[in-house]
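Input:
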Amino acid sequence: MAPFLSKRDLQFQLFEVLDTAALPQRPRFAEHSREVYEDILNVAYAVAERHFANHAREADLNEPHLEGGKVNLVPGVQAAMNAFRDAGFFSAHHDEALGGLQLPWVVMQAVQAHFQAANVGTAGYAFLTIGNANLQRQFASPEQQEKYMKPLLEGRWFGTMALSEPHAGSGLADITTTATPREDGTYSVSGTKMWISAGEHELTENIVHLVLARIKGAPAGVRGISLFLVPRYRVNPDGKPGESNHVVLAGLNHKMGYRGTTNTLLNFGEGGETIGEIVGEPGRGLAQMFHMMNEARIGVGMGAVMLGYAGYLASLEYARERRQGRPASSKDPQSAPVPIIAHADVRRLLLRQKAIVEGGLSLGLYASALVDDLQTGPEEGREDTALLLDLLTPLVKSWPSKYSQEALSDAIQVMGGAGYTRDTPVEMYYRDNRLNPIHEGTEGIQGNDLLGRKLTQAGGRGLQVLLGRIEADLKAAEGLTGLDEIRTALQKAVGQCVGALQTLLPKAAELGPDLFLANANSALEMLGHTVIGWMWLRQASASARALPGARGSDADFYRGKLHAARFFATHELPRVRAHAELLASADRTTTDMQEAWF
Amino acid sequence: MAPFLSKRDLQFQLFEVLDTAALPQRPRFAEHSREVYEDILNVAYAVAERHFANHAREADLNEPHLEGGKVNLVPGVQAAMNAFRDAGFFSAHHDEALGGLQLPWVVMQAVQAHFQAANVGTAGYAFLTIGNANLQRQFASPEQQEKYMKPLLEGRWFGTMALSEPHAGSGLADITTTATPREDGTYSVSGTKMWISAGEHELTENIVHLVLARIKGAPAGVRGISLFLVPRYRVNPDGKPGESNHVVLAGLNHKMGYRGTTNTLLNFGEGGETIGEIVGEPGRGLAQMFHMMNEARIGVGMGAVMLGYAGYLASLEYARERRQGRPASSKDPQSAPVPIIAHADVRRLLLRQKAIVEGGLSLGLYASALVDDLQTGPEEGREDTALLLDLLTPLVKSWPSKYSQEALSDAIQVMGGAGYTRDTPVEMYYRDNRLNPIHEGTEGIQGNDLLGRKLTQAGGRGLQVLLGRIEADLKAAEGLTGLDEIRTALQKAVGQCVGALQTLLPKAAELGPDLFLANANSALEMLGHTVIGWMWLRQASASARALPGARGSDADFYRGKLHAARFFATHELPRVRAHAELLASADRTTTDMQEAWF
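Output:
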């Protein structure tokens, strides 16, 4: 079976493109070293291979289902969670005082990447738990952290995020789950939550739901929403789970992919009182959630990258082995058929996948490194870093979600009929990844976020920071060999983006918000491709520097990077222009369309 | 539940864009009329709705499986086949003498469209039978037709196409199934065939396989391949199925979609002799297959269109009903959420689907009408018609296969989490349609066919015919209201295509076949979008002419057509340029890539 991840590329991204090896110079990471990080990544690979990849297809074919009122999962999930816990990954980025390793976020993302690639369905249980704990760490009281967070860090309990309701998914402002104050300061929570991943299972002795709800009498809209800690089982004074908290499984959702993760409809306060504790101040629920949104969205983008990456590697292995047809120049029927990797169009499909998934990986790790810079980097420049991260986040989330899906389609295409069957993994990755453009904010939401908020906030400073960094990398690349196509194409794309924005942004008031945002998707496409082009410039630059001293497979690796950069320049970046022109024209086709005309 | 097909649009395409109502002027169709065609389409809708749509999801969830050595299907399949047979659809386009209605091919395609939209998996059994009979009608002897074709026309037996082998799918030149002459003039057939749809089932008393095989001692390559009629059960002198012909089911394939159609691995000559009859002359097998290829590929394209269409209609209904969020200009949390069709980005996703599926339908029916013109149109011009049909075929096959998939992704996106579940049909359509870019010739094969053969054969006459027809339609559209965007954008796209081809084609010899074809995919993309733009010009022209006299929902229909044409002009046709430029540059990125660099 093909590997699910390229160790060599991960090393390259972390230590040759990014300066992860320098992080131990920061006080928080003083006890680390490049070797420590490499050891941890090796453990991640081993655990992911042995305990996650082993049952990915089995979990896909045997969805969570009810047996005797309990959710039944394939046994591999429990074993995987135990191995993940034993490796210390639930708490690896937390303080040593909490049992963590104080791993930088970029290394933590690289660790998680292994599990996303090996088995995204099973990994879901762990990642939701990690996200839940991160949010508690930020906003919950010390008592709450002791009670609800520590068991998560120890992998003894799992966590969820319970935001959506049947009538309110993208529009969270309209949730109706209510929290009624009780005399002891806790709340009685009542309502129905939809799409709750890992909402019910028997993997752990308790489940901690983070629930958005509206305190009785709170104002309409987002300012009336608060956040609550709601355990499946109430917690006894000794910290052990006690009686039922009346969170009732009302149904399981059956999805196209991500089938290994239980997805639930939950009723809170059914057949008894559901008691919850408020996190922080009332009315801050959505703001607290959004505080974690950059990291959550980077996580979705990285998940998309890794599914695409696993598909790329599977189709690459297949293309090297499968023999079929002959080159156009050599139709001698007596000759042996060639491995299909020899065909130009198969090579195009493989190069495109490589360009997408390695470009996406570069961006996901770059953004993760920005999270570290925000938390542990030099004080100076943190404001710029924050604005850049804000600007990049919708791209990190949406670009790989969309383009990994295209890459996975290319992987299926390389493998033909075989790729379309359940005997090979790519059709599963294709089904799994189709969720990524939807959850944690749809593409429509990302486009509006980018154009309506991130490109204009702080007087457009985020874009200036981005352009400054691209400019610096372009300058640093001067004189390097083999970068002509990517440099030229990137400069052109940057010019088209800037031109479009300089035309559109001054018209914002005149157009009004609806018209201004009408083509926000083109902003996402235009800047997404340009930013990935920048990531390819950075990878190509690192490769051009390393190539003269490299030999053998190492030299091949760098040549492949340079060539994928050329591919992105010649085959992908020219798409920016059409989006830039549409955006600049403030085209009204979609807003002029009338409902009755459909 | 949403309708699976728009009757109004089908009427528009057949009778307002195409001149299907004039076909009865041709002798073969003299007994027809527009009313006859409309009645038949109404029957098709009723049968498709009652007997096909009813079990589409059930068949998806309960794949064909073995029970006691026999293939078990959900019961709806048998009922659907009976209804299809009783409606006379197996033979509807055949001569009256054969029990047919002599339906024109364009009407037959419109009939089939209903079943492709309602339940593509069940429809597969019927369509393979129809294709098999068409091939026999063309090439089999009168005795063979009496023996093997008539039971297919009557729906008593079903047919398959057994081409691929485990080691030879796209590369049919390398098949190894052998046919050894027997003393009585028949052949003993031995070998293994892969991906055989409807290869085994108990729906009918016999199955007729059309098998490609190599007569012992035949030359290597395509010229050594012959075509054989191989029944599942040998046929007794009285025409009834007799003893086993030793075609053994060796396995069922499990696919991502198209789950309702049994897909098989078949061993011929296992445990006994498999006897077949040769069709026509030895060595003509692949040529005979390819003679039917235009029609088969139009069928695949139309199937893709209809899956996309069904998804569009489902997401449109959802978008009208689902309320979520508020326009950017009106964030009052007290106001009711709006139907999501009010959001610009949802409207973009719906308009894009409309532009893709209605454009694709237009092209599929246009090409089908060309098939009729070839067979029953004026003698004069048939050569040009044949060249145009040849040129369009790779586009008719590949464009909807690719872009319906994007449309279906847009449908899922509109429906969000609901679209990702198996409670709604779009995720199934998305899985089903992903096969279409693979079977009946992959996209890579279509690209090479277009650039390497269809654009150059007969001195490029096919392209000249195409350009002439586009030019004529552009001229006829002069003075019509509401067509500015589509006319301008189409003219520009045509200019870009012509420019690219004028640059590339003269260099063919200098580049050599491998380099010349290296960017064939861009030829497919560039001409595909341009031809669909032409189809939108034709639809917009018909609508502009009809609009002044139209009222109410009819006027809305024409305004929607004009607006979708504008959308295709502003949002899709600008993509042509990047492909044209890449093609003209004879870019070597894919051919320069070395295998070791991946």
